[in-house]
Amino acid sequence: MPTPAPDDRSPSTTRGAGPRRALIVWTAVLAVLVIVLDQLTKVWAEDALADRDRIPVIGDLLGLDLVFNPGAALGIGNGMTWILTIVVVAVVVVVVRMTSRIGSRGWAIAFGLLLGGAIGNLIDRLTNEPGFGRGHVVDFIDYGVFIGNVADVAIVAAAVMIALLAILGIGIDGSRVSSDEARTGDATADDGAPRVAASDARPDDASADDTASADDAGGRA
Predict the structure, then answer these.
(1) According to the UniProt record, where is the region Disordered (predicted)?
(2) Cβ contacts of residue 100 below 8 Å, gap of 6+?
């Protein structure tokens, strides 16, 4: 009877494949929801806020005011729209590649928000006037010091989540580094075996070495 070929996949790998695929799906779903909400609110803003003065919602702290932004937040990079477009495309590519390693629900949410926000503004740069790659982003949420949109809110929320996950020591793959592990990490050799100091050697080992040396000397004599 032929012997079945061994399965090279470890049990941990096979068990983790399903949850990881689910997290990737949820990341994609959240990104799509952010994109749809961002684009719908921009369409509404262009229709409802055109040719109107700022509409206060909470005094000077929050309001609605339609602007078309050629640069980044706070008016940065107004003459660098093409460069900003390339940067956003690069960010999207990197995040998509990193999503394949995802193993944490927190990172799934953070990546979903970041992807949705980045793609939402990228759509504006690719489709709005004055042309492909140079389009102005539709902003309408006035915070008093700058004006943003739903995509910007998602990006800021993602940045906060990523910072918290980093502080908590939660890796993209779901692994977690505790302070105890960080302290004992230096006591482990590169090959995974613990280092043993000379002072930690057992006396029995030393006596065995001395006996072996004496036997060798006697044999030579």
Answers:
(1) 179-221
(2) 24
Our CA angle for 93, 98, 103, nearest 5°, is 150
Q: Which residues participate in catalysis according to the annotation?
A: 139, 152
In angstroms, the CA 176 to CA 180 distance is 11
Strand order in the sheet with 137-142: 55-58, 62-69, 137-142, 147-148
* Cβ atoms within 10 Å of 87's Cβ, excluding its own: 14
Residues 6+ apart with CB under 8 A from 118: 88, 91, 92, 95, 151, 155
User: Tokens standing for 217?
Assistant: 């000397």
In the block, tokens 């960010």 appear at: 91
Give pLDDT tens digits for 103-147: 999 999 999 999 999 999 999 999 998 888 888 999 999 998 889
This prediction's pTM: 0.70
pLDDT given at position 82: 73
CA distances from 16 to 9, 19, 22, 23 (A): 11, 6, 10, 11
pLDDT digits (tens, 9 = 90+) for 78-90: 556 677 788 889 9
